[in-house]
């Protein structure tokens, strides 16, 4: 996802509590030019296909992946976000604005089946999936997906119990549990949490079944041809047989001749698990840097006691920067969600400076931080648009780190005058009482006057003959010092 002139900045283009009024595709299409001007080069759009919750479904309760808001299914034609026509128009608007589009792909599970089937199954312990807690007995499972509302358009494939490993509901007994179908085994190449974390929710796809693989290959090609998206955000990959995406992405890239940049969500704060996934899959996708998110979250909740020198310790950004997609928050970590770990408001500008203004990693901005989250009365993050613009225009050239104090850390970028005039910067942030640090922005900036474009420090600082100066930051704050010549942004 390279732009010829500007470096990549992604936007996760939704949050959990968007209005359930089928208006989002039209709304966000109108924002395309504004986002491009700001510095956004790629957007990750939410799941666009019909979910089991109909117009109320955020998109992760997958029902019919061929219904992009076109058929009367689950009591609605449009999805939560709008119709197929509006989705395609939004993609076209982003492309016209020079923004690439990543589609959210959810292949782990299906929900909202049309019919039940009687299946022999045993129960596994919810906390230790390698341990059976019952013998095999008949259950009634929601596993027949026939899509009568679509009536065979685009695909006549019908799902039945043989295409799944198991479910979490026995309709016969009206009882929840983890039910593994007779003759099936959970995939072994998955995350080892709970002994085996193949099963997540709904009807769990059997990624070793040839018919499943063939259908998902067919759907992937159809989706690319239909929508024209540029790449993918891959949901919940820790629950999916690791070799699957190596096969799926490689085949789609070969069949289409497209680059298909992809980012996978492997939700684990243990760096070794993320590196293991990259190695086992042949580095076919980047990963979100979950460990860095938790470092930022902990720093925001540590009352200034977090050692900021260690903010990158144990992160993918530090270990595998070329495959690290950095983020501050997302739809799962926002308030009220299953993985809630929302970075505190005072620290948000500092966190965004950490992911946006450094050389390592590819940053992904959260829609809820850029536009606010009305559901929780959360306003947009102050200064975030400025930081995105600074990344676009000024965050270039060699980087020198000053990560040498438990409370006050910083770095400089020397700039790239030939391609980005007046670029270069000096960043200083503090989770404690504030202070100053002598830093060098490069001899090319000798004698220049630098100002804090965040407006937190009013001083004007003149750099010496070596391009160095004593830069300042207030307590619990962020200052981004740039050349006065770069204003206005």
Descriptive keywords:
alpha/beta, Immunoglobulin-like, Elongation Factor Tu (Ef-tu), domain 3, eight-stranded parallel barrel, elongated, 489 residues, TIM Barrel, single chain, 3 domains
C-alpha-based Rg, rounded: 24 Å
- Total number of helices: 11
Helix content: 10-25%
Distance between the termini: 24 Å
Largest sheet: 8 strands, parallel, barrel
Q: Could you say which overall geometry the principal axes of the C-alpha atoms support?
A: elongated
CATH class of the largest domain: Alpha Beta
Which structural class fits the helix and strand makeup?
A: alpha/beta
**Strand order in space, largest sheet:** 1-2-5-12-13-14-15-16
Summed up, the domain count is: 3
Give me the count of strands. 24
What is the oligomer described by this structure?
single chain
Q: Mean pLDDT, rounded to whole units? A: 97
Low-pLDDT stretches: none
- CATH fold title of the largest domain: TIM Barrel
Which architecture of the largest domain does the CATH hierarchy give at level 2? Alpha-Beta Barrel
Can you give me a brief rundown of this structure?
The protein is an alpha/beta fold. The chain has helices spanning 24-29, 32-38, 84-96, 210-227, 243-256, 271-280, 290-300, 316-319, 348-356, 367-371, 384-393, and strands at 10-12, 42-45, 50-51, 62-64, 100-105, 109-110, 115-124, 137-144, 164-170, 175-181, 203-205, 231-234, 262-264, 286-288, 324-327, 362-366, 399-402, 408-413, 425-430, 434-440, 449-452, 460-462, 468-474, 478-483.
Task: Please tell me about this protein's structure.
The chain is an alpha/beta fold. The chain has three domains: 10-107 and 211-393, Glycosidases (TIM Barrel); 110-209, Elongation Factor Tu (Ef-tu), domain 3, CATH 2.40.30.140; 399-486, Golgi alpha-mannosidase II (Immunoglobulin-like), CATH 2.60.40. Helices cover 22% and strands 24% of the residues. The protein has eleven helices and 24 strands. It has helices spanning 24-29, 32-38, 84-96, 210-227, 243-256, 271-280, 290-300, 316-319, 348-356, 367-371, 384-393, and strands at 10-12, 42-45, 50-51, 62-64, 100-105, 109-110, 115-124, 137-144, 164-170, 175-181, 203-205, 231-234, 262-264, 286-288, 324-327, 362-366, 399-402, 408-413, 425-430, 434-440, 449-452, 460-462, 468-474, 478-483. The strands form five sheets. It has an eight-stranded parallel barrel. The radius of gyration is 24 Å and the shape is elongated.
